[in-house]
Amino acid sequence: MQMIIIMKENASAKQIEAVESKLGEFGFQTHPIYGEKKTIIGAIGDKRALSMNQVLMMEGVDNVVPIMRPYKLAGKELQKEPTVIHVKGVTIGGDNLAVFAGPCAIESQEQFTGVARAVQAAGANILRGGAFKPRSSPYSFAGLEDEGLKIMANAGKELNMPICTEVLDTREVELVAEYADIMQIGARNMQNFKLLREVGKYNKPILLKRGLSSTIEEWLMAAEYIMSEGNEQVILCERGIRTYETSTRNTFDVSAIPVVKELSHLPIIGDPSHAAGTSKYVPAIAKSAIAAGADGLMIEVHNCPEKAMSDGEQSLRPSEFSQLMSELAPIAGAVGKKL
Ligand code: PEP
Ligand code: MN
Q: Which of 201, 229, 285, 312 is geometrically suited to a Cys-Cys bond with 308, CB 3.0 to 4.6 A?
């Protein structure tokens, strides 16, 4: 970590010396530049030892500017090439498009396997489904839990596809990790730092959804939490954010895709389903994500959306999903990706 400490115009030699010696105490190398009016001090060291605020509060200090972005592992300063994740024969990142598809919630073996077969036939390469569901109401269906995980694993085995499911709580990570090939951290848990640290201890890809009201920097810091525990296989997922607009459930931030691509080497996919909240807008949003450079999509598909126990309104029917996949192919080709 490097930072630049800008001293006030009237800072005394004693104050400059005090800043240098404090930085030195915490293992920073300092490089002062004495100007006619102002002195600035370049400092190189490990920021975890000393926070910028501690320096900012010292007498004579005007400002402290970080040079390295706060997300060291998720950012591009240490790794320029894009991260490519391999899971059960599927590649996420690089030139490949990963398509996660399946119902919002796992309801029964018949329902899940039925949808799974249909999405595989249409070209999806990863199965999604919720066994532990974060619901806005405590009275809504909260998932089949253990039984849901087993149902999902059966379908994954039968179809030879990786499975992705959400883990809601630190106490359930071990169980979910037994079944899931990719663990999902939902939007509502993006800043559940204990949960982030816990999944960071596993050697398994993590799909990290963007928080409902999170900035891109907060999102990358959440990825940093996972990576700082040793798990660098993080896939980011833009799923829409809260804005003043009410025509859609959330506002799909398509600009997050090129911004994340500039700031991070991690793969990023788009989830048009939770952004739109209604199936009719899903295809257009999905296409915009791919055109903007996303590494894939997560799409909710249900064999009978009107009977779905969660998120039916935004779920595509298998035939609609299949149609979307064929419409996506030329867009993928135009941006140099393989679908
Ligand atoms: C989901 O994927 O079903 C889900 C609950 O998503 P989000 O966390 O984006 O709302
Ligand atoms: Mn859902």
A: 312
- What whole-number percentage of the chain has pLDDT above 90? 89
Q: Which residues line ligand 1 (CB under 6 A)?
A: 104, 130, 134, 186-188, 209, 239, 274
What integer pLDDT is reported at residue 36 of this predicted model?
86
Supply φ then ψ for residue 112, to 5 degrees: -70, -45
Dist CA 313 CA 223 (whole Å):
30
What dihedral do alpha carbons 243, 257, 263, 163 form, nearest 10°? 100
Of 269, 295, 273, 296, the C-alpha closest to 284 is: 273
Q: For the chain, which domains are there? A: 2-66 (3.30.70.1140), 85-334 (3.20.20.70)
**Nearest-CA residue for atom 6 of ligand 1:** 186
pLDDT band at 1 (very low <50, low <70, confident <90, very high): low
How remote is the CA of residue 297 from the centroid of ligand 1, in Å?
13
Phi and psi, residue 223, nearest 5° = -65, -40
pLDDT digits (tens, 9 = 90+) for 240-291: 999 999 999 999 999 999 999 999 999 999 999 999 999 999 999 999 999 9
For the entire predicted model, the pTM comes to 0.88
Torsion (CA) 232, 237, 242, 247 in degrees, nearest 10: 180
Q: What is the pLDDT of residue 45?
A: 82
